[in-house]
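Quarterly update, task 2.4: alpha-D-ribofuranose-bound model.
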Amino acid sequence: MSKPRITVLGSYNTDLTTFTPRMPQPGETILGSGFKTGPGGKGSNQAVAAARVGAWVSFVGRIGQDMFGEMALRTWKEAGVDTACVRQSSEQATGVATILVDSHGENMIVVASGANFAVSPADVEAAADAIANSKVVLTQLETPLPAVRRLLELGRAQGVLTILNPAPGQPLDRDLLALCDIITPNQTEAEIITGVPSTDAESAARALREHGARTVVMTLGGEGVLLYDDQGPRRFAAFKVDRVVDTTGAGDAFNGALAVALAEGRSMPDAIRFASATGAISVTRPGATESMPTRAEVDALLASAG
Ligand code: RIB
């Protein structure tokens, strides 16, 4: 099968990750168990995940002219991500994420956006050819909303499948949601957008559809995935893993792989299974971008799960 092309608009951050036995309380100092510097950012993680599992990926974003920006360029080169639509700014620093990961693999993240917050609708318009040649466009909420909206508009105008991963969560207008063929929140993000308590995933998914999104693919962590489309709600179990090392980037692995599977023309249930397997492998490894599996690894997990 020939590789499909997708366009990802989003953030790049360098992740400064400290591993810790437990999360500290406000005002408390504790001793961590390790430290790692690596590439991250939801947009870039999703772009690299998609490239590793089998797509030609064009990335739209901004980085600074600094050491962390060089790390971004090396990362994309190694993954084969096309950077023709990436701008390097002398005025803003490359984004940075400060991350704590506890002994259960759970994380807390603070992002200093830097150059990511200079991404503009004009940057997206400069990627019009890449978008028109894509099967899927994919974006998140770590870059400004006007740019996100422009990507979804251009994708919709070209008949390209539009996917919004609304992370980090923020309230969204109905007209933006109406540009989403697929929206992929986790439960917290769904609650922020709809106001429906996260404990009631099906009602929140229904509300997202009423707000304009066509199909909702809600990630429920270890509880799997809730799909809500014209056929109503359906649930998909999570893949079991022996040990969760680091959940950072698991949602990004899922989103990148979902975009590729749909771009390959797979059915939504097949695409969710493929994406879930990709996310499951990523949590068994430390780091965000570095935890993204290859296509061979994902296919092997799917084959072994039967
Ligand atoms: O989704 C994980 C990512 O969120 C991290 O890589 C960090 O950079 C933040 O953007």
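Highlight for this quarter: The longest strand covers residues 56-64.
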